[in-house]
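Example 4.3 (complexes with small molecules)
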Amino acid sequence: MIRMNDFLAEPPELRAAVVAALTRVAESGYYVLGPEVRGFEEKFASWTGIPHVTGVANGLDALSLGLQALGVGPGDEVITTPMTAFATILAITQVGATPVLADIDEGTALLSLESVQRAITPRTKALILVHLYGQVKNMPQWVELCEQAGIHLIEDCAQSHGAKENGVHCGQFGAFGAFSFYPTKNLGALGDGGAFCSTDSDLVATVATLRNYGQTDRYHHDHLGANSRLDEIQAAVLSARLSWIDQFTRRRREIAGRYLAELTSPPVTPLDSPKQLDNHVYHLFVVTTPHRDKLMGHLAGDGIETLIHYPVPAHRQRALPNVATDPQGLGNADRHAETCLSLPCHPGLTDDDVSQVISAVNSFPG
Ligand SMILES: *Cc1c(COP(=O)(O)O)cnc(C)c1O
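Answer. The structure with pyridoxal-5'-phosphate bound is encoded below.
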């Protein structure tokens, strides 16, 4: 069976480092907001080059606490994509703001600049750009659009650890970047975790209080915060795993490179890849085909697991009736949801696994 993720196939040295981290915390007697969290925040800041980092409980909280810190709330609109993990939308609704969905580009499934422009109204306060599948693209254009519109640019980096444009790591092009360390992400914990990152030290300091009941000094509360602390145990695991991420990203790119070069089945089209290797970390390798469900069944028959990211776009979710959209609709997002399929692309795949996936796809009759 070739799986979408295979944690047990990870190198034994990494397993040993993770177990050593668990033991270190268990024997430290310090379990919440201690030296491991501070140590990981510093390591993640130096690895990304983003000056200020605060660990939080998950990626959703990194987004919603950031929106709260920016003062986004009831009556405000936040534009984002319907083709994302639903957490992106929940961050907006959790602060009482109104999500407005713009359409995606067909070639990349990333937000369309023209569609976002059509979705801006006088009430728009922010744009959440999702670096979907691990790709960072056209950041100077997005920065300029948000500056001209007078709205905050927010980056959802839950899928894009390590992705850079022109040498700049994602998460620092706008007001803040939100990272998730859910186990399947490119940098994952042994449970939940997240990070709020920004070049703005005051904003990060505010989120650092919000994650801990909004308290500034012990039992003194300046804000109505949340309980969104990163555990010492998860921070220690993340520090160990951070040492491996560059190697894992290289392997993801190698696998994606083979798929791009060797997938030749006419009815199966990979999404557009960037010219610069740095822009994409291939959290997911996504193809589209008009016969998606048949392809999924064909691959399953060859022992290859695939997944759909995402089968139901946000505007078709029952939890979100009558959501506001680009007035011209979300046709590309609807089409993508019906035709996209994610192939296995994790760093534990062997060359032989990759060859098996390629020959299985290439033998798909359509
Ligand atoms: C995973 C993910 C999130 C949410 O992260 P959690 O840590 O699960 O809260 C948000 N946005 C995107 C694009 C994601 O992939």
